[in-house]
Amino acid sequence: MSQKKSGPIDVAVGILMKDNGDVLLAQRPAGKAYEGYWEFPGGKVEAGETVEEALKREFMEELGITVLAAEPWCCVEHVYPHAHVRLHFYVSHQWKGLPQSREGQSFSWQGTVRVEPLLPATVPLIQWLDALRYSHSTTETNPA
């Protein structure tokens, strides 16, 4: 069972976060690997691009949003059956525009993440993300 040896594919991933901690998740469109799975939006870093440039391009292409500022959050490698990826996660609290479904994908603002199934590389990040989202507020309540 030999597998082609190559480095991971760099992917820019954005977490749009509202002031109340809600984050935007998108459903992978038909025809893509893991069709129907939910993920944070993003895409491959192209030759000559920085990760942040790729993030801004992908958000405009996929959702029609202009990312005004984004901070690096974490980097995770994951090996899928179809690809080895290095996911560069950025958190943005500043963007312009409202999400539009430019690739026929569904999207949803989530407080407590309830959409399923989640892309496997996303699953372990939800707990880390909750710590990030709710560490700033000790008085905020989460309506059931």
Plain-language structure description:
Helix content is 16%, strand content 34%. The protein is α+β, with helices and mostly antiparallel strands and 144 residues long. The chain has a single domain (9-134), classed as Nucleoside Triphosphate Pyrophosphohydrolase, CATH 3.90.79. The strands form 2 sheets. Strands 4-1-6-5 form a 4-stranded mixed β-sheet, covered by helices on one side. β5 (66-79) and β6 form a beta hairpin. The longest helix has 13 residues, at 51-63. It is globular. The relative contact order is 0.24. Residues 137-144 have low confidence and may be disordered. GO terms for molecular function: 8-oxo-7,8-dihydrodeoxyguanosine triphosphate pyrophosphatase activity; 8-oxo-7,8-dihydroguanosine triphosphate pyrophosphatase activity; 8-oxo-dGDP phosphatase activity; 8-oxo-GDP phosphatase activity; metal ion binding.
Relevant terms:
Nucleoside Triphosphate Pyrophosphohydrolase; three-stranded antiparallel sheet; four-stranded mixed sheet; alpha+beta; 7 strands; NUDIX_hydrolase_dom; 144 residues
Topology:
Elements: E1 9-16, E2 23-27, E3 38-39, E4 42-44, H1 51-63, E5 66-79, E6 84-96, E7 107-110, H2 125-134
Parallel strand pairs: 1-6
Antiparallel strand pairs: 1-4, 2-3, 2-7, 5-6
